[in-house]
Amino acid sequence: MWDLFIVNPMTNILLLLYDILGKNYVLAIIVFTLLIKLVTLPLTIKQQVGMMKMSALQPQIKEVQEKYKNDPRKMQEEMRKIGYNPVSGCLPMLIQMPVLIGLFGAINRTLTVDPKNLIDLGKHLYTFLPNLSSLVPIDSTFLGVFDLGRPDRYLVVPIVVVVTTFLSNKLMMQPTTDPQMAQTNQMMQWMTPMMFGFFMLSTPIGLGIYWIVSNLLGVAQYYLTKPMMDKARAQYSMVTVGGGGKPSVAGVAPPLTQLTPPPKSKIRAKNNLNKPNTDGKNKK
Question: What's the pTM?
Answer without folding.
Answer: 0.72
